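User: Fold this; tokens only.

Assistant: Input:
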Amino acid sequence: MYVIELTLKLNPLPLSVQRKELRDAEVLYQKIRQAMEREKPRLLEITCEKLEEKKVTVLTEEILALQIYEKTVGAGGTKRPGFSFQA
């Protein structure tokens, strides 16, 4: 399971979306990244992979940061997001 996490302006908690396959997660990551690079603000709709009727829409100019990481099912539940020297 892979997590795509968005940090939004003036929002203390990140918005995260999960994808089962790395390829699907990378496609969504690139879609969001390209939307962030555009000059004009626009709406970006992200759907749930499991329940397609579950959706969230964000204004692209409100996205401050974007990251992708693998969620593990072992002890601790997830790999530490971001960059670190620990595995």
